[in-house]
Amino acid sequence: MPEAPVLLYCRCAYAQVVPSGVKNAVLAQLCESGTSFETVSDLCEMAAHRDPRLQQLAQCGRLRIAACYPRAVTGLFHQAGAPLPEGTEILNMRSQTAEDITQQMLRPADAPLPAPAVAAAEA
Amino acid sequence: MITHTARPLKVVLYEGNGALPLPPEARLKVMTALLDKGYAVSRVTPTSVTATPSDDHTLLLLGTFPQRQAPALEDVTGRIQIETRDITDLDPETVVALVDKTRGDKPMNEPGKWKPWFPVIDYSRCTNCMQCLSFCLFDVYGVSEENKIQVQNNDNCKTNCPACSRVCPEVAIMFPKYQAGPINGDDVSAADHGREKMKVDISSLLGGDIYSALKDRSAAAKSRFSKERSPDKALDERKKCLTKLVSDGFIPMDVLASLPSPDEILRKAEVAKARAAAALAAQPGAQPAS
After folding, report:
1. Which of A107, A112, B151, B173 is deepest in the core (most CB within 10 A)?
2. Which domain of life does this protein belong to (chain A) (predicted)?
3. 3-class DSSP assignment, residue A105
4. CA B160, A12, B6 angle in degrees (round to 5)?
């Protein structure tokens, strides 16, 4: 049985670039689920001052992140000195639907990623 | 004020053993209010645990506890101070106020007061050409000990200005808070790459690099000063040049307004060029300068 991933949700609270309908719906569904998860106010803000928590998140094993473009999220962690581990799944609240994202976030640890998300995770 | 201290408080919405689950609506509202205030929040349930360790000195556990009695908890290692609060029937504003009070006067960034705006390098695309280092006049970029380009001074970056991203020949510079792709980190299409290669940017507007253009104008202005002694004319020229850049939407007005004087631009451009050349020359396999 694979290790359960840590779920991380970014609120993008410092700029309104993530559609509020999507980010609110994703948070609502995470809250409705019975699962534990981590949330941050804004990954960019944390990366800007190299918040040590990014390093801890990057080191916590498997990660599933609901944030924005995978290229940007990967770059933010890297720039903050906390490169994401291989296999990190990044779901894009700027381009995917809330339903898609929550389905992928909350799927069992051993369930494979649907095709478009695989591409995102590998970006 | 932008703080560069670690977040002073880790907030945990605790619904694990010994606590009662929050009503779903209240859970969402509390979580949303805390995130929008700038806090990071973990939710802990009995069925799964979060794996992230706490780096914070203070851990604040919020929960609904039997008899509204939050338990007293202690970190066995003594490193972390654990505070617990019962939030039964509290509205989100009151919960935020309670968290604020626990934080005390420790500084923390808050949404709405500052926009995290800085370049992020996609190293899978970057070829270390140093064009961004040569281009940026605000010393945002620097070179690592391994002579690799890196973002060194985030705070110097001018909010809403993605100009360095536009001049990157490999579309390797992102601004995650930008609206449109590929600057926002969206996938780079062949067309995007082609466009960047064509340098549809400031250069094409001025027939060359913006700083060279400003430098030329500076030189021209100096020459005019000697002939006509008319600094006003030179300023008019510069203004026209900058107004065109603004009207074409390439650079925000306030960024251009904060550009140094032409002489300072010239000096900075030379310094940046020299740094870039030195870094390139130091790269493995670099040809010695002839």
Report:
1. B173
2. Bacteria
3. helix
4. 95
| ipTM of the complex in this document | 0.92
Amino acid at B61: L
Cα(B275)–Cα(B137) distance, rounded to whole angstroms? 13
DSSP string, B186-255: PPPPHHHHHHHHHTTTHHHHHTS-HHHHHHHHHHHHHHHHHHH--HHHHHHHHHHHHHHHHHTTSS-HHH
Hey, what are A31's tokens? 């809250």
Q: Which residues on B lie below 8 Å from A32 (Cβ)?
A: 24, 28
- B51 to A76: CB separation less than 8 angstroms, yes or no: no
CB within 8 Å: B55 and A56:
yes
Nearest residue, CB atoms, B111 vs list A39, A42, A61 = A42
- Mean pLDDT score, B125-154: 91
Residue B44 and residue B14 in contact, taking contact as beta carbons nearer than 8 Å: yes
Polymer length in residues for chain B: 290
A13 vs B28, B36, B44: nearest CB: B36
Smallest CA–CA distance, residue A32 to chain B, in Å, is 6
Closest CA to B192 of B204, B177, B176, B180: B180
Minimum CA–CA partner of B45 in chain A: A36
Nearest-Cα residue of chain B relative to residue A58: B52
In chain A, DSSP assigns E strands to 6-10, 37-40, 63-67, 89-92
CA distance A37 to A29: 12
Q: Indicate whether this model's pTM tops 0.90.
A: no
Q: Per the CB < 8 Å rule, is B40 touching A71?
A: no
Over residues B168-218, the pLDDT tens digits come to: 889 999 999 999 999 999 999 888 776 655 443 444 444 445 555 555 545
Pairing status of strand B141-143 against strand B149-151: antiparallel
User: Which residue would you say has higher pLDDT here, B251 or A102?
Assistant: A102
**CB-nearest partner of B179 from A17, A34, A35:** A17
How far is A117 from chain B, CA to nearest CA, in Å? 14
Q: Is B122 on the interface with A (CB under 8 A)?
A: yes
What angle do helix axes B24-37 and B92-103 make, rounded to 10 degrees? 40
Query: Both tokens of residue A110?
Result: 């051993």
